[in-house]
Amino acid sequence: MRRFLQVTWLVVRKDLRVESRNKEMLLTTLFFAVSCVLVFSFGFVRGGEAIEGSASGVLWITIAFSGTLALGRAFERERHHDALRGLLMAPVDRPAIYVGKLVGVLLLLAVVEALVVVMVAFLFQAPLFRHGWWLLTLLSLGTIGFASVGTLFSAMLLRTRSRAVLLPVLLYPVTIPVLIMGVSGTFALVQPEPDLVLARVWVSLLFFFDIVFVTLALWTFEPVMTE
User: Fold this and answer.
1) CA 88 to mean position of chain CA atoms
2) pLDDT tens, 67-93?
3) Nearest-angstrom CA–CA distance, 1 and 91
4) Which uninterrupted H or E stretch holds 49?
5) Residue 86 class from Cβ within 10 Å (0-12 exposed, 13-18 middle, 19+ buried)?
6) CA gyration radius, the chain
7) 42, 131 in Cβ contact below 8 A?
8) 96 by DSSP, 3-state: which?
9) What is the pLDDT of residues 45-67, one digit of tens each?
10) What is the rounded distance in angstroms from the CA atom of residue 103 to the CA atom of residue 65?
11) Contact indicator for 61, 36 with CB cutoff of 8 Å
12) Residue-wise over 49-82: b if at least 16 C-beta within 10 A, else e?
């Protein structure tokens, strides 16, 4: 277990160090997320009033689109100079490589989501911070479920030429339940009379889906990368 965590941390540290030098993925994903929220605000806000329920939908659609952009480049650096081959030939558990890449994506999306939540709360006049801990739980579980599948698919499609097109085609049908639960749970929190019981149900379902998705991803990552 200790060796597994060490390998995971090494992969995360490598990605963070490379990203800190040029900030390419971070800035690109942030710019895309900001653009999405602004475009949606022009479409769903009229006279300073947002369409009911639009804030929760815009929040999760922006996360999904931005997450897809980030996931598409999760293994991009490993394509050059046979870095992926060297990584896979290392005498380490391959699931640890997957977890390291997943944690790196989650940290990136956490920064993006922090900005997106503030923008949606301001532009759509949505009380997202009224039950902040519940929202944080929903975002955390939803992002883990979305990114766990996306990281696996990003690794699977690394060697294909049309990976930018295939990733969303494969990713969205699988993760639609996660996005629906995230939207529904968020809407239960931001409506005039918050329904915490319903929000708790969606949180429980997201937790269940996360366990299933992460377990399957850890189980299939090694044979996928071997092939």
Assistant:
1) 24
2) 998 888 777 776 665 666 666 676 667
3) 15
4) strand 49-50
5) exposed
6) 18
7) no
8) helix
9) 877 787 888 899 999 999 999 99
10) 18
11) yes
12) ebeebbbbbbbbebbbebbbbbbbbbbebbeeee
